[in-house]
Amino acid sequence: MSESSHARIPPAPPRQPLPLMQLILVGLQHVLLMYGGAIAVPLIVGQAAGLSREEIAFLINADLLVAGVATVVQSMGIGALGIRMPVMMGASFAAVASMVAMAGMQGVGLPGIFGATIAAGFFGMVIAPFMSKIVRFFPPLVTGTVITSIGLSLFPVAVNWAGGGAKALPFGSPIYLTVAGLVLATILLIHRFMSGFWVNISVLIGMVLGYVLSGLIGMVDLSGLAAAPWLQVVTPLHFGLPTFSLAPVLSMCLVVVIIFVESTGMFLALGKITDREVTPGMLRRGLLCDAAASFVAGFFNTFTHSSFAQNIGLVQMTGVRCRSVTIVAGSFLIALSLVPKAAYLVASIPPAVLGGAAIAMFGMVAATGIKILQEADIGDRRNQLLVAVSIGMGLIPVVRPEFFSQLPLWMGPITHSGIAMATLSAVLLNLLFNVLGGAEREALARAAHQH
User: Fold this and answer.
1) Is the Cβ–Cβ distance between 383 and 430 less than 8 Å?
2) For residues 163 and 170, what is the distance between their CA atoms, to the nearest angstrom?
3) Which regions span the lipid bilayer (predicted)?
4) What is the pLDDT of residue 355?
5) 315 near 269, Cβ under 8 Å?
6) Domain count, the chain
7) Using one digit for the tens of pLDDT, what is the confidence trace for 34-43?
8) pTM of the predicted structure, to 2 decimals
9) How far is CA 376 from the centre of its chain?
10) Exposure pattern of 401-420 as b/e (b: 16+ CB <10 Å)?
11) Residue 215 domain-assigned?
12) Which distant-in-sequence residues (6+ apart) come within 8 Å of 287 by Cβ?
């Protein structure tokens, strides 16, 4: 197959366009689900850098703007950028540990973080064409294992939310569990007794009911809403010119490689859910968009960006697979970045409300992985071992985040990412068991068949 044929994007299966109101509501679901993750990174880094509340709010708005633009480009496809599937983009957690360390370094701070982000984005654009060729190392055995691990590695986030948030006092209060249970029960009952439009917005309905209940019992904190401005435009280089130091740049370049590994697994998962084969050409466009978003992010006062795994579960559960939904969602993010009052209102959703929805969402991601594994030869004991070890490796940072704390600091982006650990393990074990020994195994299989 020629390179040009790889570069062409196969047409998506024909689908009925959604009515405008349904499109808006389903797009809003995507925003509400990923919003907490989108604002968490600038919040953490801003606090580590000792910024004021107003400056942290600016960081959050900057992140929403870049996430919105990147989501639209990734979903729509512009020039050589964008995989043209329903993808939500946001600031990546893979870089958080490195950036928190940089924030406290003498002579680095925020300008150094933004400089490292710009350099890493450029590095990502250079290596994206080479990284896109690794798609052949992701047969159903590897893809299913990685996607299952993505779902399992997200589950602690869902549980923390459902319990009221990691800082909730007391964590797991019956009030938080009731709210989360109401949201989850609403979603399940809609899927059981309704269809079509109602199923498509089941998560939104559950979250609205949960938000209303939370408001009635005093769980919604709107203090500071009146002080937030109605309009604020994000200006580039707000914190000064970026600076470039070798160690932070190298650290962020490694982060971009990890983001590429994670994004590859997510794009393949979306391909399975939307019935599209992800070709090397498509993967290259998707990874280029990830890298370009990070490059631009450094100039616009924010951080490395990647696709958000939690939204894959929403695509699977609602069955709404058209990219116009995430284009609308990206437009919502851009609007929120310009209207701090609206962004503040969305940020007031209690974690327990998100947790009830996330239990269903993230579980659907894992279920998708299990479904894909059925396409592989799981009867083979070596393949069983690959799945077992890879999922186990992926769960290590989830179960004990400090497990690799004594290893060199530069390994942090790999060892702190359950998705990266599972992906690397699955790819390497597949090479060991099925690629390097492939000819020998085929000969044995033929001999067994003849006998």
Assistant:
1) no
2) 9
3) 20-44, 110-130, 137-159, 171-190, 197-219, 239-261, 325-346, 352-373, 385-404, 416-436
4) 85
5) no
6) 1
7) 777 777 788 7
8) 0.72
9) 25
10) eeebeeeeeeebbbbbbbbb
11) no
12) 124, 128, 131, 132, 260, 263, 264
Query: Is 318 or 360 the better-scoring residue by pLDDT?
Result: 360
Residue type, 419: I
**pLDDT value at residue 17:** 66
Per residue in 385-401, pLDDT (tens digit) is 999 999 999 899 888 88
* Cis peptide bond prior to 170, omega within 30° of 0: yes
Q: Where are the alpha helices (DSSP H) in 49-108?
A: 53-76, 96-103
Q: Which residue segment(s) compose the domain that 432 sits in?
A: 18-150+222-348+365-450
In a domain, 306, yes or no: yes
Report CA 233 to chain centroid distance, whole Å.
26
Beta bridge partners, 15, equal none
Residue 205 lies in a domain: no
Cα atoms in the Cβ-side hemisphere of radius 13 Å centred on 122: 9
- Kindly report which listed range (2-16, 74-88, 238-252, 263-277) carries the lowest average pLDDT score: 2-16
- Say which range, 32-41, 110-119, 199-208, 250-259, has the weakest mean pLDDT: 32-41
The encoded tokens of residue 73 equal: 């480009």
What is the model's pLDDT at position 272? 82
**Torsion 345-351-357-362 (CA) sign:** positive
Q: What's residue 33's pLDDT?
A: 75
- Taking residues 96-114, what's their average pLDDT? 77
DSSP code for 350: -
Taking each helix axis from N to C end, the angle separating 53-76 and 20-48, rounded to the nearest 10 degrees, works out to 140
Q: What is the pLDDT of residue 438?
A: 57
Where does residue 299 rank: exposed (0-12), middle (13-18), buried (19+ CB within 10 A)? Answer: middle
Which residues are bridge partners to 90 per DSSP?
Answer: 306
Q: Which amino acid is at 425?
A: S
